[in-house]
């Protein structure tokens, strides 16, 4: 009797298991996320983190703010900068299991649901990089979890929690406004519309607007510049065909290909299962978000945060199906499920995390799919090349020289690694670099330019000469820096001073 009682006492709950899994995922990211280099988007975010503000052209302020906390607490390294993204995706794993628990899933189902979410490529990637998508993904899933709690308990006070999360989402990525609109539409077309009469719902709306207000005021003060930026990026994406793979990305990135059946079953669960109909709002939420971004030609990964709730619903029906099987068949089905999750997780990790040797076949396959790895290479070489050009200038020129970076990755790399080589801060005309201006010299005699073509420079300078060829990387991987630009220029004789052309050269990227 005592032995049996002891065994019951040490039995770990489903929540306990998923917390342990989340801890393991966090440790895994911490030990593996420093194999390559900083991504170009990270370089800009880290640089923006040094200039805290209530807004930036390319994104709201929360991600740079978290980046600044990382810098202050842990210093600058790939591991330290990526602590919060890894933590965010570990919480995502926990929420995946908790959604299953709230829907009535057993301990086993909670673990399956948590793992199904964790092995989604978008979650794995965003746990290894400091990007706003990492936290945007978390907010979407947290909102779905809170909606399950609301619909299950019918306690309207959950609207306050949702208001806080939506507000944080708006401070993270502006696509939250479309998710919030889909939430509103889902409420209107389901029985949840009864909550429209609740003061708690409107208090939640007010709370979300209050949290978002500082960024909104920043936008108004800057003539809604982020709207101009987002429209430019969207039109560019359509023009270059970046949105053409929207449907394919749903099954390659939004969910793990081996968990697609689980997501489809989850959609069925919310619409047609007698128990799931109670949560039909979540099914409509997914369909409305999907329809909006599909017809508006958004990027495929934009709706990645809408899949974990489907995986949770699918896990509930999976468990019922397993329970209805005869014991020998049940064991076989369980083994097949574990194998699929393990295989899907291993393949996704090898393809989308910095684990494999650069230029290996698996590395190339993952890079071709998500196009992440190539933009993590060559930044140190870029800064070294610029430093050689800078040190080669005559001393009188060098003391007055300015470095102009054509894209945010270059500017971020110069400002991150440049001090080690005695380089001045880079200026630029792209995104928030344009807002920060051109420095104290309105008409420098010498400008080192990178990330621009000769034709563009001829319009602004009397004389520009290439000081180098295209900037390559030690792995000979072709990326934007090695293929899109001719090299590093040294330019003299500005035709007009910066104040006269600064508005003219503003760029988005």
Notes on the structure:
The chain is mostly helical and 509 residues long. The protein folds into 2 domains: 2-370, no CATH class; 377-501, no CATH class. The chain contains 26 helices and 5 strands. It has helices spanning 2-9, 14-32, 40-49, 62-74, 78-81, 83-102, 107-118, 121-126, 132-153, 158-170, 176-188, 199-221, 225-240, 246-254, 260-272, 280-295, 307-323, 327-352, 361-370, 379-391, 395-398, 408-417, 431-436, 454-458, 480-483, 498-501; strands spanning 402-405, 426-428, 446-450, 461-466, 488-494. A 5-stranded mixed sheet has the order 2-1-3-5-4. Strand 1 (402-405), helix 22 and strand 2 form a beta-alpha-beta unit. Helix 2 (14-32) packs antiparallel against helix 6 (83-102) and helix 15 packs across helix 17.
Strand-helix topology:
Layout: H1 2-9, H2 14-32, H3 40-49, H4 62-74, H5 78-81, H6 83-102, H7 107-118, H8 121-126, H9 132-153, H10 158-170, H11 176-188, H12 199-221, H13 225-240, H14 246-254, H15 260-272, H16 280-295, H17 307-323, H18 327-352, H19 361-370, H20 379-391, H21 395-398, E1 402-405, H22 408-417, E2 426-428, H23 431-436, E3 446-450, H24 454-458, E4 461-466, H25 480-483, E5 488-494, H26 498-501
Parallel strand pairs: 1-2, 1-3
Antiparallel strand pairs: 3-5, 4-5
How many separate domains?
2
List the uncertain runs: none
* Helix run count: 26
Write down how many β-strands occur, each being a DSSP E stretch of 2 or more residues.
5
Helix share, percent: 55-70%
Q: Please state the overall shape, judged from the principal axes of the Cα atoms.
A: globular
Proportion of residues in β-strands: under 5%
């Amino acid at each position: 009797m005592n032995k049996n009682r002891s065994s019951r006492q040490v039995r770990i709950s489903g929540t306990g298991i998923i917390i342990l899994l989340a801890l393991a995922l966090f440790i895994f990211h911490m030990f593996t996320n420093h194999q390559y280099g900083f991504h170009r988007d990270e370089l800009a975010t880290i640089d923006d983190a040094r200039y805290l503000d209530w807004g930036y052209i390319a994104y709201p302020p929360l991600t740079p703010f978290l980046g600044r906390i990382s810098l202050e607490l842990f210093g600058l390294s790939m591991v330290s900068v990526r602590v919060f993204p890894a933590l965010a995706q570990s919480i995502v794993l926990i929420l995946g299991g908790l959604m299953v628990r709230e829907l009535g899933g057993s301990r086993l189902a909670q673990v399956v649901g948590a793992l199904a979410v964790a092995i989604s490529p978008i979650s794995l990637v965003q746990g290894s990089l400091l990007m706003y998508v990492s936290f945007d993904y978390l907010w979407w899933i947290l909102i779905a979890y809170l909606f399950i709690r609301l619909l299950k308990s019918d306690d309207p006070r959950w609207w306050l929690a949702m208001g806080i999360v939506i507000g944080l989402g708006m401070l993270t990525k502006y696509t939250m406004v479309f998710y919030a609109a889909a939430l509103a539409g889902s409420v209107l077309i389901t029985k949840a519309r009864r909550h429209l009469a609740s003061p708690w719902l409107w208090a939640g709306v007010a709370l979300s607007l209050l949290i978002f207000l500082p960024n909104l005021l920043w936008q108004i003060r800057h003539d809604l510049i982020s709207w101009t930026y987002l429209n430019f990026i969207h039109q560019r994406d359509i023009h270059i065909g970046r949105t053409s793979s929207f449907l394919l990305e749903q099954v390659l990135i939004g969910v793990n290909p081996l968990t697609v059946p689980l997501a489809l079953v989850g959609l069925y669960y919310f619409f047609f299962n007698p128990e799931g109909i109670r949560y039909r709002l979540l099914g409509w939420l997914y369909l409305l978000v999907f329809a909006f971004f599909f017809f508006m030609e958004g990027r495929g990964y934009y709706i990645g945060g809408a899949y974990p709730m489907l995986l949770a619903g699918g896990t509930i029906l999976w468990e019922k199906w397993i329970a209805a099987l005869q014991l020998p068949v049940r064991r076989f089905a369980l083994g097949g499920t574990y194998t699929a999750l393990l295989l899907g997780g291993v393949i996704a990790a090898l393809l989308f995390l910095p684990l494999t040797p650069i230029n290996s076949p698996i590395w190339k396959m993952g890079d071709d799919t998500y196009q992440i790895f190539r933009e993590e290479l060559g930044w140190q070489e870029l800064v070294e090349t610029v430093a050689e050009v800078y040190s080669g200038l005559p001393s009188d020129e060098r003391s007055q020289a300015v470095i102009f970076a054509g894209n945010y990755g270059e500017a971020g790399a110069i400002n991150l690694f440049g001090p080690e080589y005695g380089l001045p801060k880079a200026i630029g005309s792209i995104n928030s670099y344009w807002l920060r201006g051109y420095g104290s010299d309105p008409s420098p005699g010498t400008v080192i330019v990178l990330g621009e073509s000769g034709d563009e420079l001829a319009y602004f300078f009397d004389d520009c000469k290439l000081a180098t060829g295209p900037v390559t990387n030690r792995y000979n991987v072709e990326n934007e820096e090695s293929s899109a630009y001719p090299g590093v220029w040294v330019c003299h004789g500005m035709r007009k001073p910066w104040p006269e052309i600064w508005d003219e050269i503003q760029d988005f990227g």
